[in-house]
Amino acid sequence: MNQRVAILTIRFVNPLQQKEIVLFRGAVVAMLQHNNVLFHNHTDDGFRYAYPLIQYKRINGRAAIVCVGEGTVSIGELFTSVGALRATPLQIGNREFSLELDTVKAEQILVQVWESEFVYQLRKWLPLNQENHRRFSEIEDLKSRCDFLEKILVGNILSFAKGLGIHFDKEVKVSILNFEERGEIRLKMINFASFDVKFKSNVSIPNFVGLGKGVSHGFGTCIRLNRDFNKIEKEQD
Hints:
The protein is an alpha+beta fold and 237 residues long. Helices cover 25% and strands 38% of the residues. Strand 6 (90-92) and strand 7 form a beta hairpin.
């Protein structure tokens, strides 16, 4: 089975606030002449519950779109449907701007279980549903809280892989090095606890893809940490 995943990271010059990502997503969908479900994950019957293949982000303070797998093909509609991007202004709240392309980076990333481990930073991660939030709140000691979150994170990684047709033949391991609760974030009329997490895993995860809930809205962005740690960490904000 081919476990190389196509990743397309599109960065724009336009500044974007974290709270504007959902508006950015809606504005991009409104630009399209075709109703491609991968851009918004809505179907006639409700929602597309599979892993989001087009994800709207804020990278280094600017608007960005990360496309995964089949999403790298569908994103072409954004450019062909509207012609020149600058000719079609986006309405973001009370302000209007035309998208100005900065960079486009295409990669083929090998996603698999390795003998070695990688260190990642996960920003604005939304791991808990209402039931898990109640259970997590009842846990008092730090180690047990880490164990609880690690199991959820393993599930998030497996869901990511499954969404791309990848099934691991070895155990997925996760070890949380530290985590910080960032307070609640409201998404789709529901409040979710938000976390920043540093963790190790034996799975290679592409930069800027999302894990957990709210992935298509820019939450749960995952970055591999290396010797360029300071630069990469800054680019998440």
